[in-house]
User: What shape does this take?
Amino acid sequence: MKQHLIVRIGAKLLIPPIMLIALYVQFHGDFGPGGGFQAGVIFAAALILYGLVFGSAELCRVAPPHIILKLMAAGWLIYIGAGFIGLGLGGGYLNYNVLSINPMTGQHLGIFLVELAVGITVASAMLVIYQCFAAHQRVEPADDEG
Amino acid sequence: MELFVNITLFTFLLVTALMIIRLRDLFAVVMLSGVFSLLSAGLFVALDAVDVAFTEAAVGAGITTVLFLGALRLTGAVEKPPRESQFVPLAVMTGLAAILIYGTMDMPPFGLAAAPIHLHVAPQYISGAETQIGIPNVVSAVLASYRGFDTLGETGVIFTAGIGVILLLRAGRHTRRQHKGDAA
Amino acid sequence: MIEFDFVLAHYNYWAAILLSTAGIYVVVSRGNLIKKIIGLNLFQVSVFMLYISMGKITGGTAPILTGKAEVFSNPLPHVLILTAIVVGVATTAIGLALAVRINEAYGSIEEDEILVMDRVLEQQDDHAQ
Assistant: This one.
């Protein structure tokens, strides 16, 4: 769709605000509606829009699949790790009270970490799924048997 | 007013569902399912579930539609007319709907504050979000703190689904390349 | 004779049930795999509506604390459904990927055509033995 001027300019105008909204939703999720799940999906939507307009090869250049794949695993590992930090500091698994001297600050820190982890995993998983569908070429069945 | 909004949205949803059943052009059906998601996001706002509405609008109307279009590109966009008679499924579904509606007769009325669901852990969560956790968004507090294990598992499901799609759609390409390598 | 109040107190549940049976009807009666997944999505969203309807309190507001004394709708169904939506799109993606692979293997995503092909293949196997 790169040759359509309106689509191209429109996408270029829209993508940065969408990413900004994703970050806002991620980090303001404690105070208003939002959180890691929504932010991840919105961030992925921005990159998918980029891929739709400028082609999946261009998207692969901006967001290389091997890095996205590692991020997907990293997000979940951050979540698991956040649980183990609580365990190491003398609380239960995923107990954020012990993360700081003040239990409420600890909760803030824990929720921030966990939401960030969820956001990273969701964004990269959605992106990986889109890239898989976009990069897949239509294979005729006769081709497979030959 | 709330009632009017609810009933209007439900009417739209039912009409959309009916068109999804009737149409055989899958491209139109995918678009309608996006419309269905957006309408249901509106309904969730009317039912006070702003976080859910947010997610449904972003996921259902955005990502899901793109994924369906991506799959249609790889499969084909027209559904063949059903060969068998539609009478049996229709009868079974009517029966199922009747049984389920009979099951709702004993349910507490819609919006009743004294319903059992509102008396168990929800009041603790709402007061705890203020006194124990200190963040205003109760949904975030429950999601990340009170029910952290749930969310851990669900993040794992999303991760696994990502891996699954990679295995399904990329594995074929890999084996073909290996075959070519063997032949050479 | 059903009273009007009774209908008002339950129409949300009934609408969700009607929508969900419409979803299962698509899954059961249509042979196209993509259409089946769309039906499954329909069913899924209707179940979400049922859950959220149960969490609603009349005169309540969204569960975001403002410092004022207010009635808040139940946040628990919101949490369950919010994660279920994202998990739902992930599983939908798996289903679509499977449909794409089936299309590559059989050249069709119509259920009855796939069944016919399977039967032919089985008969060929029997003859070979």
The CA atoms of residues 16 and 50 of chain C lie 6 Å apart.
